[in-house]
Each structure stands twice: as structure tokens, then as C-alpha cells.
Amino acid sequence: MNRSPLIRILALAGLLAATASYAAEANKKGGSELAAACGQDIKTLCPGIEPGDGRIAACLKEHRRKLSAGCKDAIKAQRAAKKAGEK
How far apart are CA 52 and CA 49, in angstroms? Predict the structure, then answer.
């Protein structure tokens, strides 16, 4: 019995699972870093905005000229990371 194809399939499945796990963790990390960097901006510029469905992002975009430097940098870093992940 030739096990080589089976071993290759199992190795590929493991690699795909590891990649998906890494991407999910990176997304969580990026989100928490963004929340930390933009937390005060959200409290100040978007009070009463309920999170979900992109409402906070829309509010931040609407007030982009008033965002703190740290929040702007975090948004740029998240965009760059997302763009690099798509390539």
C-alpha cells in the first residue's frame, strides 16, 4: 500500500489548519491593538455608537481628521497587515 499520497494530504491539511489558526489570532491581536490605540478616540468622538456592523469604523472614518496620532498609526498598521495578508 502506497502511503505517500495520504501523508501528503494529511500534511497539507495540518498546514492549512495552522495557517487558519495563525490568521485568526493575528486578526484578534490587530483588533485589540486597534481598540487600545483608539479607545479614547471612540469614547470622545463616537459616544453612544453601538458596536457592530461597522458602526464604530464608520464613526472613526467620519472623524478621521480629529483622530489621535496613535489611533491613526494603529489604523494604518492594521490596513498594511491586512493588505500583506491578502497577497
Answer: 9
Find how far residue 69's CA is from the centre of its chain: 19
The whole-number pLDDT of residue 68 equals 96
Q: Which domain holds residue 55?
A: 4-86
pTM of the prediction? 0.60
pLDDT for residue 2 is more than 80: no
**CA dist., res. 7 & res. 14, Å (int):** 11
Q: What angle do CA 69, 31, 14 make, to 5 degrees?
A: 140
Angstrom distance (rounded) from CA 80 to CA 44 = 26
Question: Is a pLDDT exceeding 80 seen at residue 31?
Answer: no
CB 4 within 8 A of CB 12: no
